[in-house]
Amino acid sequence: MRKQTLGIALLIASAFTGTIGFRLATPAVAFYTRDVLNASMISISLISIAFVLSRAFSSVIGGSLLEKKKELVFLGALAMFGNAFVMPLYALTNSWVQVVGIKLLNGVFNGLSWPIAQFVIVVSSPKELKGRVTALYFLFGNFAAFLGNYTYALTIGLGIKAQMLLASLSFVVTSLLMLTAYYALYEWIVPKRTQKTSGSFDAKKILALSGLFFFTIAFSSGDITYVYVAEALGIEKGSAATLIGLSSLIGALLAYAPSWLADIGKEERVLRFAVILAALSPILAAIKTPYTVFPALVMALFAIHTFRPLVRKLLAIKASRVSASIGGLNAVSNLGTTLGQLLFGFAYGILGDVKIGEISVRLSLLIFAPFSVLLILLEKKKD
Fold first, then answer.
1. Which of 208, 340, 369, 373 is deepest in the core (most CB within 10 A)?
2. What are the φ/ψ torsions at residue 362 (nearest 5 degrees)?
């Protein structure tokens, strides 16, 4: 029991250390590409897409490999170590195309490392605590997201080279934490069940819902989010990063209560609640005022932090191929985000604002309204 508790605690700690580095690097690279390399908004979205797509495909590969050979769980920790070598390369770029290439590498390493960590935290937690332990894992990650964004704001004067070195250090620490955690939890890791669970659970419907969910709220994640918030609200880069980090932290804190409800059998209600929040958030974010953009970000991130641990819990308990299912979940979620960011980035460059009285509404976000309706309908029909 001590070994199990230690391993889970170390993985939760790895979510904290790894996310700090990731959230420090994301705005640093986004604003460096926009301001120094003079990239367009569609180029920024392509950078995000490169990362998300490569992460999606490597997530599937990681889940499939782990299903075949349990020992490959340690590959996740080594992939995280690879991030430490990639980060300093951003400071050497002189075009956004080079940034895309580095983002592809980042995506491969992240796709191999984080889904494995999420799989291990879910399957190794006691059944009656899975929802809350998984939510706690993401809560620590999102507290780190706030600190990472705030660290970016504090280190703007140091330049991108120093910021990337700090990010690299955090990934080295994260890799060591993961290696130790996997060793401690090795006996609890079961990538595939010998028998299917009873009931009418359909993992494919959950995966389809996840893809549309993350497509609809794609505006709330990645490089493009930082640029949109800064330009929509007319605030400086450090303030935009801090605002996004704060909204993520608030969303994560609020999401712990739904995770408790999910653990006592209220999964359907919690899932519906998360979907409704996600559906409303891009419409609210389209209204370019601090009183709408910030609440929209909180809603979107609250929805993510509620939805993400819940669907992983459902797959861990009910799916027969647990590691492959979680790898597939990460893949379709990333693909949904990719398509959403591509649409947002493309529309941002060709659609302007529409004035409603004194209020400006961004059409590139308003076009997500039909998908918001579709998301709610799909959630109702998933059973």
1. 340
2. -85, 115
d(CA 299, CA 282) in angstroms, rounded, equals 9
Percent residues over pLDDT 70 in the chain: 89
Average pLDDT of the chain is 82
Letter for the amino acid at 137? Y
Give the bridge partners for 347, in sequence order: none
Cβ atoms < 10 Å from Cβ of 352: 11
Higher pLDDT, 231 or 194: 231
Q: What is the rounded CA–CA span in Å between residue 187 and residue 336?
A: 34
CB 66 within 8 A of CB 72: yes
Question: In whole angstroms, how far apart are CA 189 and each of 4, 135, 368?
Answer: 11, 19, 39
Planar angle of CA 131, 326, 245, nearest 5 degrees: 65
Tell me how far apart the alpha carbons of residues 261 and 55 are, in angstroms, rounded to a whole number: 31
3-class SS letters over the chain: CHHHHHHHHHHHHHHHHHHHHHHHHHHHHHHHHHHHCCCCHHHHHHHHHHHHHHHHHHHHHHHHHHHHCHHHHHHHHHHHHHHHHHHHHHHHCCCHHHHHHHHHHHHHHHHHHHHHHHHHHHHHCCHHHHHHHHHHHHHHHHHHHHHHHHHHHHHHHHCHHHHHHHHHHHHHHHHHHHHHHHHHHHHHCCCCCCCCCCCCCCHHHHHHHHHHHHHHCHHHCCHHHHHHHHHHHCCCHHHHHHHHHHHHHHHHHHCHHHHHHHHCCCHHHHHHHHHHHHHHHHHHHCECCHHHHHHHHHHHHHHHHHHHHHHHHHHHHHCCCHHHHHHHHHHHHHHHHHHHHHHHHHHHHHCCEEEECCEEEEHHHHCCHHHHHHHHHHHHHCC
C-alpha closest to that of 14 among 137, 104, 135: 137
